[in-house]
Amino acid sequence: MRRTDKDNINIAILGAGTVGTGVYKMIKEHRDEYKDRTGAYINVKKVLVRNLNKERPEYDKSVLTCDFDEIINDRDIDIVVELMGGIHPALEYVTKSLEAGKQVVTANKDLIAENGELIGNLAESKGSDLLFEAAVAGAIPIIRPLKQSMAGSKITEIMGIVNGTTNYILTQMSETGMGYEQALAKATELGYAEADPTADVEGYDAGRKVAIMATIAFHSRVVFSQVYTEGITKITAEDIKYAKEFGYVIKLLGVAKETDDGIEVKVHPMLIPEDHPLAGVRDAFNAVFVHGDAMDDITFMGRGAGQMPTASAVMGDVIDVCRDLVYDSCGRVGCNCYKKLPVKNIEDSMSKFFLRIQAEDRPGVLANIASVLGNNDVSIAQVVQKSRKGGTAEIVIITDYVKERNFNDALAVFNGMSGVKEISGVIRVY
Q1: Fewest C-beta atoms under 10 Å: which of 100, 223, 336, 368?
Q2: Domain edges within the chain
Q3: Burial status of residue 204 (CB atoms within 10 A of its CB: 0-12, 13-18, 19 or more)
Q4: What CATH number has the domain spanning 143-303?
Q5: Alpha-carbon Rg of the chain, whole angstroms?
């Protein structure tokens, strides 16, 4: 890692998209200030793009290349900043960069969630930095605090709003009375949602971020395929209304817990009390709530996406690596996955549930519903019954904590039960 030129550090950026352009702008605008912070000037020597003919007025044309070999074979390039997204070819480029002895910074949640062990071990074998603060929650510092600031505590729970698109949609539904489709359309119009919002609204984006946080917090490898994911597409205005009536708000949460028999890691909508720190997180903001035995509760909040918030997190990592290069050190802190805890099946986890049922409005139906729940070891904490037109009553129930397998067994009975017309909503409760 020893360098002869400590006054200049050269980086290559892989990808000239939104975040890559933000990083490029920050380096140009703050060059002298970064020199004061690190002890060296940070220079962008190359930017990898797919098409050299595309107009990119923000960039000096001399730095653009579509040939990765120009980067990997350039001994003067110290740091590779991967901002392409996706698994391939990002995995191959990061691997080759580490094998060539270069330091790596990435914002790629897909890459870290699926291949973090592979590239982490490679970085360790090469004595190289591999930093990825921007992979989770944008500008919010959470990776570094989990690895360093909170390392003295035993962390038992992480719960976070880590997808701005879904939080914006649910905020609109809660505050304006919009339905899901209308709120999604507004999110798309404002640029919060992609043309294909599946990764956001089905919980996949949040699932990858939760896998990363769980791996670090619980010192045990968790990959995305082990995360239970459930999105917000079935949330209705009626669900929102009843949540308010019970004193809750609905958020899409990533939840990771270390229990006596393994790790629970999941993403799903959840009713949380109105006075919980995450309840007031509005619009596209993100927040992460962490509980540890010695530190109690800590909440981080800020902008979890966008060009400059994400670029800010990337540059925080770049500056750390630059300091390491100047002082001939390595600041990388690995995940130290020594526990090898099992990841629990969702049916073995414990949850409280909000249950909304359309039933025949006649004597004995509510009693039958309560009997089915009781026979499956599901206790009722709260219940509201409201008559509606056409001989249908809407029954809203909040349960006590129950094993998910037992609750699902009760739902299976309801689906074939006389007097029950429809299960209209099922949402977990904090």
Answers
A1: 336
A2: 8-138+307-326, 143-303, 347-429
A3: middle
A4: 3.30.360.10
A5: 24
Q: Quick one: average pLDDT of 11-31?
A: 97
Q: What is the mean pLDDT of residues 12-36?
A: 97
Tell me the CA end-to-end span of the chain in Å, nearest whole number.
48
Nearest to 50 by CA among 93, 8, 11, 9: 93
* b (16+ CB within 10 A) / e for 304-319: bbbbbbbbbbbbbbbb
Q: Annotated catalytic sites, by residue? A: 209
Q: What is the CATH number of domain 8-138+307-326?
A: 3.40.50.720
| Beta strands 103-106; 248-259: pairing state | unpaired
* Identical fold, 8-138+307-326 and 143-303: no
Query: How is 81-114 classified by DSSP, letter by letter?
Result: EE---SSTTHHHHHHHHHHTT-EEEE--HHHHHH
For the domain spanning 347-429, the CATH number is: 3.30.70.260
